[in-house]
């Protein structure tokens, strides 16, 4: 018996959609993001490489960000965040202005969460929680970092619902809401930074996943969000969003994913001459830090009761020193002191070192 096999060869190519004057007939804010085309997927490059690992959340696929989608027309910025949230929160942050924005979510008057920002200070965010289909849109008070105001009448919708793996949060933002004063022009702020996060449902809770991927992951203490996608909206600086362009082609990253996040560590503390014991009135103690990531550090000194004593001083690019004095200028009494290493971003290395005053 003879069998005949037919081989079907598929030629898969990107479906292209460009920004244009009016997208209102295509873009529907219903929590179903299937109207977006592939070149509007931000975590996907032009070669089809997925820039957000599937199910890379610390808590698994049921609390995981899948994809960010972006496009715009003359009147609106359209955003969709595909994710699965099971009894948790989802937040999408927008940063436009360099002179203010959120530094530390734990200090906000609303939506407090246990993480800080580095390289980005969001001016707006869209937030919702599992089973709620009406995301809230918030704006940071101009010039500040801890007061946010709820912005009404911005069209949003979410389908996050008890483990729906195909859910999305969508929003349609008028440009005049983002560029809300005549002196804050798009031509002066032509790029928009975006980062998203899933957080636990409790105030001051942290979270399992961030997209684009965080440099240090989401299991550090404290968590520092330090990566973002950046989209060029107005390349000719004419104060209007560019038309007939691919949003994906306008996207860059602080660090392009995908990559494996690396928790910050101080691998080694090298004391000059191997000396960790000194008499401060006659000497200083000097040391070098070897880290797994290129980072600027603060070195904080505590006694064994947890009382802050002083900062070590960085005397060149490699070495720190402490003269044994407390913040009040007096010499610390003899005893054992603990060195804490805190990166400029706010990440805390879990390695500590002891020094001894005799």
**Strand residue percentage:** 35-45%
Average pLDDT across residues? 89
- The helix count comes to 1
Could you say how many structural domains there are in total? 2
N-to-C order of helices and strands: EEEEEEEEEHEEEEEEEEEEEEEE
Annotation, overall tally of beta strands: 23
Q: Outline the low-pLDDT stretches.
A: 1-13
Describe this structure in words.
The chain has one helix at residues 175-178; strands at 64-72, 76-84, 89-95, 115-117, 124-129, 136-140, 148-150, 155-158, 168-174, 191-199, 209-211, 223-225, 229-232, 251-253, 266-271, 277-278, 285-291, 297-303, 308-311, 313-314, 319-322, 335-343, 348-357. The strands form 5 sheets. Strands 3, 5, 6, 7, 10, 11, 13 and 14 form an 8-stranded antiparallel sheet that branches. It folds into 2 domains: 38-253, no CATH class; 266-357, Immunoglobulin-like. A hairpin with a 7-residue loop joins strand 6 (136-140) and strand 7 (148-150). The protein is an all-beta fold and 358 residues long. Mean pLDDT is 89; it is low at 1-13. The protein is elongated. The N and C termini lie far apart (94 Å). Helices cover 1% and strands 35% of the residues.
Concise description?
By secondary structure, this protein is mostly beta strands. It is built from one helix and 23 strands.
Descriptive key words:
358 residues, mainly beta, Immunoglobulin-like, 2 domains, eight-stranded antiparallel β-sheet, five-stranded mixed β-sheet, 23 strands, elongated
């Amino acid at each position: 018996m003879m069998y005949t096999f037919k081989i079907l060869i598929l030629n898969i190519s990107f479906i292209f959609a460009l920004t244009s004057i009016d997208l209102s007939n295509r873009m529907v804010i219903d929590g179903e993001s299937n109207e977006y085309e592939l070149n509007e997927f931000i975590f996907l490059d032009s070669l089809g490489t997925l820039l957000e690992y599937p199910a890379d959340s610390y808590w698994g696929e049921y609390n995981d960000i899948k994809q960010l989608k972006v496009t715009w027309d003359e009147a609106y910025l359209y955003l969709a965040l595909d994710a699965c949230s099971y009894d948790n929160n989802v937040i999408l942050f927008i940063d436009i202005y360099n002179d203010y924005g959120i530094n530390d979510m734990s200090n906000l008057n609303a939506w407090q969460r246990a993480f800080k920002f580095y390289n980005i200070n969001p001016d707006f965010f869209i937030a919702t929680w599992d089973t709620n289909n009406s995301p809230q849109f918030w704006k940071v008070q101009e010039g500040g970092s801890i007061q946010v105001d709820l912005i009404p009448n911005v069209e949003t919708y979410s389908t996050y619902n008890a483990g729906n793996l195909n859910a999305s949060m969508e929003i349609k933002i008028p440009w005049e809401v983002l560029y809300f004063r005549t002196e804050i022009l798009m031509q002066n702020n032509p790029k928009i930074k975006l980062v998203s996060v899933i957080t636990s449902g409790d105030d001051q809770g942290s979270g399992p996943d961030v997209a684009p991927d965080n440099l240090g992951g989401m299991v550090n203490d404290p968590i520092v969000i330090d990566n973002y996608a950046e989209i060029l909206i107005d390349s000719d600086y004419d104060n209007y969003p560019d038309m007939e362009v691919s949003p994906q082609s306008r996207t860059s990253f602080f660090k392009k994913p995908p990559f494996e996040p690396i928790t910050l560590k101080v691998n080694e503390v090298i004391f000059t001459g191997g000396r960790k014991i000194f008499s401060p009135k006659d000497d200083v103690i000097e040391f070098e830090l070897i880290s797994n990531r290129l980072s600027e550090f603060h070195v904080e000194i505590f006694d064994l009761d947890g009382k802050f004593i002083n900062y070590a001083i960085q005397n060149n690019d490699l070495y720190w020193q402490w003269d044994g004095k407390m913040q009040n200028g007096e010499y610390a009494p003899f005893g054992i002191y603990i060195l804490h290493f805190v990166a400029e971003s706010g990440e805390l290395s879990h390695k500590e070192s002891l020094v001894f005053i005799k």
